[in-house]
Amino acid sequence: MDPDRRDHLPGSAKAVYAISVAAELAGVGIQTLRLYEQHGLLTPARSDGGTRRYSGDDLARLERITRLSGQGVNLAGIARILELEDANTALTAERDRLRKRHERT
């Protein structure tokens, strides 16, 4: 992608995609996104009017969900996998932070 164009794209955490756009980008139905939200797999931001807004990070998570679902993992299993992956990411970040602090002393 042209570097000048990247400057105009929203950050991965910025919730800008409507549910219809997120569904189209993910290749799933709108009702599927709502189902994933009901099961706590996705938590889109809400506009002041209550409209769901998805971020690039949400779309990446949705891609992981659809990949797991395609492999035959049920929604409860997907929820547990995502929970463990999130915990692992947090622990890795904490470990890296502590290593940096230790290296400075």
Describe this structure in words.
This protein has five helices and three strands; from the N terminus they run H-E-H-H-E-E-H-H. It has helices at residues 3-6, 19-26, 30-38, 56-70, 75-104; strands spanning 17-18, 45-46, 52-54. Strand 2 (45-46) and strand 3 form a beta hairpin. It is globular and about 50 Å long. The mean pLDDT is 90.
Write the layout of secondary structure elements.
Blueprint: H1 3-6, E1 17-18, H2 19-26, H3 30-38, E2 45-46, E3 52-54, H4 56-70, H5 75-104
Antiparallel strand pairs: 1-3, 2-3
Biggest sheet: strand arrangement? 1-3-2
How many structural units, i.e. domains?
1
Write down the CATH topology.
Multidrug-efflux Transporter Regulator, Chain: A, Domain 2
Assembly state (oligomeric): single chain
Could you spell the SSE succession in H and E letters?
HEHHEEHH
Q: What's the N-to-C terminus distance? A: 41 Å
CA-based shape = globular
* Main sheet overview: 3 strands, antiparallel
Q: What's the number of helices?
A: 5
